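Q: what does this look like with adenosine-5'-triphosphate bound?
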Amino acid sequence: MKLGAIEAGGTKFVCGIGNEHGEITDRISFPTTTPEETMGQVIQYFKEKDVEAIGIGSFGPVDLNKSSSTYGYITTTPKPYWNQYPVLGELQKHVNVPIGFDTDVNAAALGEVEWGAARGLSSCVYVTIGTGIGAGAIVEGKLLHGLLHPEMGHALIKRHPEDPFEGKCPYHHDCLEGMAAGPAIEMRWGKKGHELEQNDKVWEIEAYYLAQAVTNFIYILSPEKIILGGGVMKQKQLFPLIRNNVAQMLNGYVQKRELAEAIDDYIVPPGLGDNAGLSGALVLAKRELQQ
Ligand SMILES: Nc1ncnc2c1ncn2[C@@H]1O[C@H](COP(=O)(O)OP(=O)(O)OP(=O)(O)O)[C@@H](O)[C@H]1O
Ligand SMILES: [Zn+2]
């Protein structure tokens, strides 16, 4: 199968070609400017590629309800120009193949279950900690949608006792994203995350927030694997800090071997690295074709 994949991000759109085994043979990326310009480039790319189906994992919020008149729209984003934009419909107008559509993080979770760190499992949560924080989930083998789709990045968290930072989320100030996404780190410490590697306090506070969210995701969804990706997680020292915090916060209440003895293999980086989103979009394409 020749399949197309799109990881539609707020910073850039990554497009690629691959197959049903997750092998990616071509990729290109376009900066996210206006829908006309960015989608124009995406459409041009796929027009010449002759794919059988396309999958889109998109930044959101998006409308995933197939019976809605705005299915396939990016809806209430604060990102200029993209509010109420029919990303799926615009592509469909120019490329007449089946197109699957979901959130960027649901796509990444799907890629990880199919070919990555959660391979063979029927549940996982994929969290990206980057410019924003988002999470996708597979529950009993299915992508989790619901009322809208999960917005776990805006989970409410308890403040670290030594952190006076007011928070950066325009809606909630000190929610998870407001306190722990890349721009929050930069604003709190006056430097970008990658320049703060040696400052232990930065990562102690960061891990405290991420661990609270992870602990809540464990309580609410009971995933068999938690995958943490995105730019901020390039700071690998966060993994042991988060695992220790999670173990302390759970305090033995959830009694599973994965948590007690094998937590190193439970809270992990993406098995597909930076390809999780694009690979997941291939799975969305494959599924759309098979429906
Ligand atoms: N090595 C690093 N260490 C710490 N922080 C980093 C590192 N690399 C990138 N970041 C931070 O991650 C953020 C960018 O995230 P990412 O690279 O995942 O891109 P993005 O696709 O724009 O994010 P999003 O998925 O939220 O749209 C920036 O705030 C940046 O400072
Ligand atoms: Zn928020």
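The chain has a mean pLDDT of 97. The radius of gyration is 19 Å.
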